[in-house]
Every structure is written in C-alpha cells, then in structure tokens.
C-alpha cells in the first residue's frame, strides 16, 4: 500500500466521521474524556484581549462551539493552575511565582471581540460565504444576509476574513 493510498483512506475516514456528525456527538457525550481543559486559558484570553482584538473562527456550528467553549471557559469558582503542566510555579526553581487563581465566572463569548462559526475554512480566507447572524438563544441563523457593522458579543456564521479583519 502506498502512502498516497494510505492518505486517501485516512482522509476519507476523517471526512466521513466529520460529515456524519458522530465525531462531535461522541465528543459532547464525554467532554472530560475528549477535551482537555487548561485553567490558564481564560487568563490568557483575558490578557490578550487587553492589548489586542481576539477572535474565534471555527468550522463548527454554534451549538457545538457553545458546548465546547462553555465547558472550557465557564466553570464556576476559581481553578488553580495545575503544577507540572508548564504552569508558573511548576518548576523546581526557588522563588518561582505561585499559580494565579483564574476567575471563571463570565460567559465564554466575553473573551472574544468577534466570533464566527460555520466559516468553511479555507473558503473563509478566500472568497468567503454569506454572512449571517446567529441567534445565541436558539442557535438558529437569522434570516437574510447580515450587512451591518460587526457587533461585540454577537455571533456570526460564514462570511470572509477580509470583513472580519476590517
């Protein structure tokens, strides 16, 4: 079997798993098993947003994105960074800084200036697709093409990178 044949088989299997929806379904059934949480991510995103615009562009639909991002960013209470994961204070260096508590009481969408789902990358970076707004209460797309200014905390579907950057 050639590497090309092996690549084609793996590619077809991955396409099937993605298109059938079973990959996302199985992931959502057992987030603890398939999604690794890092309690430093909320702090990282907060710091990034203090100095620059932060956006999320994903090929996934809103419902899946909402579930994953809620799992990663919206757990109640404070988590401490776990030692041994490259965290501050994890090294054996004397006087290393202690792990910072990471507040996790805000909606995941607040970590981003722009959120675009269903981007259909790489199409998003080329000619793009129709831009629509997502109703975050239902996950449904609003009727019609969105033509107004991009709004903070809104979620969009499709579109193109040139508009997102502008």
UniProtKB/TrEMBL annotation:
Keywords: Hydrolase, Magnesium, Metal-binding. Gene3D superfamilies: HAD superfamily/HAD-like. It comes from the Eukaryota. It holds the Pfam family 5_nucleotid. GO terms for molecular function: 5'-nucleotidase activity; metal ion binding. Belongs to the 5'(3')-deoxyribonucleotidase family. This is 5NTC nucleotidase. It comes from Eudromia elegans (Elegant crested-tinamou). The gene is Nt5c2_1.
């Amino acid at each position: 079997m050639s590497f090309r044949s092996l690549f084609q088989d793996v590619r077809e299997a991955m396409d099937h798993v993605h298109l059938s929806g079973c990959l996302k379904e199985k992931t959502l059934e057992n987030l603890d098993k398939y999604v690794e949480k890092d309690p430093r991510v909320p702090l990282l995103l907060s710091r990034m947003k203090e100095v620059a615009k932060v956006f999320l562009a994903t090929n996934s639909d809103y419902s899946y994105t909402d579930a994953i991002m809620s799992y990663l960013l919206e757990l109640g209470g404070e988590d401490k960074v776990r030692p041994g994961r490259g965290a501050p204070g994890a090294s054996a260096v004397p006087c290393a800084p202690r792990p910072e508590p990471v507040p996790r009481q805000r909606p995941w969408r607040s970590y981003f200036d722009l959120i675009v789902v269903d981007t259909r990358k790489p199409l998003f970076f080329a000619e793009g697709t129709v831009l629509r707004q997502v109703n975050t209460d239902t996950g449904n797309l609003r009727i019609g093409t969105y033509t107004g200014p991009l709004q903070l905390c809104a979620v969009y579907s499709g579109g193109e990178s040139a508009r997102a950057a502008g």
